[in-house]
Amino acid sequence: MILQVCFRAIVGLLLGATGLIIGSSIDSRISGLEFIPWNFTIATIGLLLGSILVPYAIIIPIQKLKQLPASSITLGITGLLVGLLTAALLTVSLGRIPGTAGVAVPIIASLALGALGIILFMNRQDLLIFNLSSSFSGSKSGHSSRNLILLDTSAIIDGRITDVAETGFLTGILGVPQFILNELQHIADSSDPLRRTRGRRGLEVLHKLRDDSDLTIEIIDRDVRPGVDVDGTLVQTAREMGAAILTTDYNLNRVAGLQGVSVLNVNDLANALKPVVLPGEEMPIKVIQEGREPGQGVGFLDDGTMVVIESGRRFINSHLDVAVTRILQTTAGRIIFAQPKTEGR
Q: Which of 23, 40, 67 is the last residue of a domain?
């Protein structure tokens, strides 16, 4: 609050003094309207404008700048300098324009090119930062962009990534974009107990990955882009950085695949590691419930695979041996169809 008052006072006084100087100049040149106190009038207007416009011209932009990551501010300043340098080079020829245009055109060019430099550099910050960081990391540690795997919120909350990491099958760097971390924190602070539990579980998984695994965990300084949701920003970031995405989200899997981004789906890995069952093979199973079709019974293997037993309804809550007839692979997992071999016991 004190800072705002000081800014208002300083800028108001500066504009008031400027108005006083302009008013004195006008007063000395105009002889027909002596009854108007130009000094006082324009100085008062400058003072009022300075006090009113300070929040919009200084305080609010400073608050916005505080919310931006350091990389965005650095690239914005770099873009401004590049734009002003380009304008300075053009001023050599633009300054030769006679009259008032020779002064106005270079100023307008400097403002326009400076703003254009800021916009271009900040809009392409992901690509620029990655190219810069990859050149340094490539020369120092030999890591390539193909070794980077971005974690999705669903994969973090799922938690199975910690088990996979402990086996040593994952290599490279696990990247957690800042917007994914913000989403996890938002879920952990939710008023809904279930969402709050899921969010806290995700944060615990990240801590466990950092402390107990040999993988490198990096927080990537990225924010959600205006008009783009979290999943869309994750796909764009992965595409620009040449990274893969680790997820359990089926829809994100399809969208990323359509945009040429490599996807590591934990569910696909779990399905691939399920025991192979061939038609004609026998297995013991307990019938748990009815199936969709009349007379069917349903049981489950230890890994969660559904087994549909034809004519197995009468064996509900009983154990029996079944023979596999066929196997159906779906996006949700594997379904085994079987026929009873023995009576329930």
A: 67
